[in-house]
Specification:
Layout (H helix, E strand, L loop, with lengths): L6 H8 L3 H9 L18 H16 L2 H12 L3 H30 L5 E2 L2 E2 L4 E2 H8 L3 H9 L6 E2 L6 E3 L1 H13 L6 H12 L3 H41 L1
GO molecular function, one term: DNA binding
Organism: Paenibacillus rhizosphaerae
Protein name: MerR family transcriptional regulator
Amino acid sequence: MDKNYTPKQMATRLHVSTTTLRRYEELDLVPDVPRTASNRRYYTPLHVQAFIALRALIKGFEIPVSYDVMSLLKKGHVEQALWTINLHQYHIQVEKQRVEEIMGLIQKTDFTKYRNVHVTEEMKIGEVAAIAGVNPSAIRHWEKEGLIRSKRNPENGYRVFTSGELKKIIVLSSLRKTVYFIENMKQLLAALETSDLAAIERSFKVALQKLNEQLKNQMNGISEMMRYIELHSFFEEN
C-alpha cells in the first residue's frame, strides 16, 4: 500500500493523458494530490483507486452523474453518493421495463387503447405527447428528421396524428437512448409500417442487449466505487 506514482506513471496505468488527470483534480473529483519535498506531485494508492472508480463509473453512468458521485465522495457525503447511484440504477430498470412493454404493444393488433387512454385516428400533438410521455418539441424534431408524419386538419391547420404514427412515437420514446442512430430508427419504423415483426424484434433485442451491457458496466463501476470508499476509510483509520 506504500507505492506512490508520478503523474506520468498514473497516466500510463490508466491509459489516459496527464491532462485528463489534472482535469479530474481541478473538478475536485479525487483526493487532494500531495507533493514531495521538492514540490513534485505524486499519487498514492488511494488516488489510484479513485481514478479507477471514476473511469469505471463513467462507463456505466452519464458523465454528470459520475462527476456528481465522485464530488460527493470527495466531500465525505458517502450516503448521498450511494443514493444518487441507486436512483440512476432505478432509471435503467424503468427503461428496460418500458422497452419490454413496447415490444408487447407492437405485437398487439388492437391499438384502440394505450394505458387506458382512448386512441383515435386524429389526435393533436399535445394528445400524442401526453400519451407517449414526451415533449411536443421531441415530436416536432422527429417529424423534421422524417421519422414520423402528421396530417393537417383542413379546418384549422393543426397537426393531427393517426394511431399508427402514435405507435411510432411511443417506439421512438422507448428506444431513443438505446437504439439512437437515425438510420437504425428509420429501418425500425419502416419495419413497423410493414408489420415486419422479425425485424422489429431484432431491434428490440439490440436495445435490451445495450441495456444489459450498461447494467454490467454500472455494476462494475459500483464495485470499484465501493473499493474506493473502503480504501478511503482504511487510510482515515490508519
